[in-house]
Queue: 2 jobs
Job 1
Amino acid sequence: MSAASRLNRAFSQALVLPFCQCSRYVLVSDCHRGVGNAADNFLKNQHLYYAAMEHYYRNGFTYIEMGDGEELWENRKLRHITEIHEDVYCLFARFEEKGRLHLLYGNHDIVRRKNPAFLEAVILYAQSMPERSLYLTHGHQASFLNSTLWPLARFLVRYFWNPLENLGFLDPTSAAKNYEVKEKCEETLRSWAEANRRILVTGHTHRPVLPQEPSFYYNTGSCVHPRCITCIEIQRGEMTLVKWTMQARTDSILYVAREVISGPVTILG
């Protein structure tokens, strides 16, 4: 099955949610929550993430996590992850209580697809302008290894590349860590979006993308950047790429700051 076929299949079964001028969504991807050890890439940004999500909860946003929320290739037990990051899952429960939580799976948490609460894709459907609807998925469908052969990829990461990364080597098969793989993956996703004239938003490559000029391809980035987390906000019919970082006031008091990287880009004019 080709990448295009995998993407078409995902969206043929997608959950459809309303998208209009009054909609408020925040799109987050690639948290890679781990077990709290040195390999837990989420751990260093957990305070940024929690502060950002509290902001979105208070301001009425619907949270859509677009895959790789948990790092289940390096770690075997989901229970260990949920115990370490209990505050995150308590926050999820608050979003869910308000009907404002939707979780997608990616390649690193693909075993979650057995849980009916986890989706492969979501379509934010604009009834007034259907051609401006947003198509959301993780983006691992662009890679044969990470989608169809994911058990092999998981085996290689868990028993081969993860130990080597602890010694300073980078996984050459990872779209997040290998530039050529990243470029190929993004080109595949962009080509599908342009060929189908669909506005596609993904994660997977960890590289945030929100061009100012008209485009069919966007990317949320990730929550495991060295000093920030990135996400895409949707409100007033616009998309904005933002990052959350730790800043210091003139009196040396630290605080979590929201900064616009790109946008807003008007989707619903």
Note: The chain has seven helices and twelve strands.
Job 2
Amino acid sequence: MRELTIDPEFRDKVPPMTEAEYRQLEENILKAGRVKVPITIWNDNGKETIVDGHNRWSIVQKHPEIPYEVEEEHFADRYEAVVWICKNQLGRRNLTDAQKTYLIGRQYEAQKMTVGGDRGTEKAKDGKFTAGAQNEHLRKRRTAEIVAKEYGVGKETVKRAEKFVKGVDVAEKIECGVKDAILSGKSKVPKTVIAGIPKMPPQEQREVITVAKTGGAWPPKKEATGSKIGYPTERRQLNAVIKGAVADLQNTERPIEHTIDDLLEDLNAIITDFQGKARRSIANHSTLLQDETSKKKVIAALSEAETAIEKMKGLLL
């Protein structure tokens, strides 16, 4: 049998199947007598590394008599491979909202590196920053815009997705298994709270992680202690979020952007987001648009958006 390599980093980028989904896939393969979809690999310095098809490969290991095919993709580096994996998963699977956010954040994280990112941003030998270092935030902003446009969301949504990724990863390091609970949709903890985990005190991290892993209600109910000493959990969590936000504002390395281009980019992101959501909504409800009356009602609703925009234009006159 052909020797294919499993890279844990690539494998863990793919949302895991449930046991039922895995069993169904195995049954389908055995019934067909072959693996219909090729396993995709990347020749990484002589190692044939799987980038798509980890579950199919696992089933082939259990049933070596089952024939399968291999398809090769070519990448410049690991970052480009990760971007491909994220795009591939986002384009073909039924995903939870948390899984979509995680994949978008992962793609943005890797894509920043493929277009520059940390490369060329190190200090020169004389201690001075290079032009790459000075313009790093511009490259990141452009990358956020590219990813945002690809999925019909705003660039700030993409940046928040990256923070969500960091929160999930920190949570998984603290408590194994919480990542699956969060991404599967079992967790009821809001994504904004998960994103704040890296900046929370250890006690609060544990509390959030426990609730996320068990699928408990959020925020958790306060237990009556009869004591007025200390703050409720929600208050401490709010303080942690506020402290994190203040720390970001006080970061002297954080670029301050107050230009007309920033305003235009934000407006373009809002417009792109609206267009994407409107198109998806119309497509999802296309069966309701079979008669002229319904179509006229939708057109009238869209006309209200035009009216709102005209009013906003008036603010500038």
Note: The longest strand covers residues 39-44.
